[in-house]
Input
Amino acid sequence: MATSKLQALWNHPAGPKTIHFWAPTFKWGISIANIADFAKPPEKLSYPQQFAVTATGIIWSRYSMVITPKNWNLFSVNVAMAGTGLYQLSRKIRHDYFNEEETAAAIKE
Amino acid sequence: HLDQAWWDGISDPISYSPYSSDPLLLQFHLQQTAILNSPVGPKTTHFWGPVSNLGFFIAGVADMKKPPEMLSGNMTGVLCVYSALFMRFAWMVRPRNHMLLASHALNESVQLYQLSRWAKGKGYLQPKEDKAPSST
Output
């Protein structure tokens, strides 16, 4: 019973024998690289790149549901990409726009 | 030939249209199959997905001015493999997505260039120095 389920997964049209599996699986690398970058100081983050990551994630989450075969793997990886991109953007925006009062106060002192 | 979809490469839509004998139907058919109304056109997510991937390409082009020390080898390498895989994906997915293929081909070239800049900056692409002492 377990083997037939495994066989069904192995032979799935979006399964490990197809590019429909490996392309999204590798896309996790982008989210993992972004999570590794959570440790980077916000000055070193790039607005264009993080915006591209976030927009790509949101648009592709929708795209993965309308292609043939429907690809949940691609959906999940793009949701994760959008999440990490949004977090990085929020870090950088907070640093750029909401720390100004602190630095201005420090300069005045 | 009537089962062939437009994205599989029909060059003459009028002669291949099933409505060549009826001008009104032909006009309607041509309108429906025009680019704006295309099944992979600007009204669909099959269009905006590839457009969003051009974001990576544009970020890569903007980063060409950056000094190699500021490039991330991890991210650039990952993006190279990512674009190669997705060029294949764009070809095999249904509907076949030529725009996606093109956007990833562009991204692949710029990311490979950035990867070479990063590698040279790190000294990975130096020629062997066992023949004569180099003056670098």
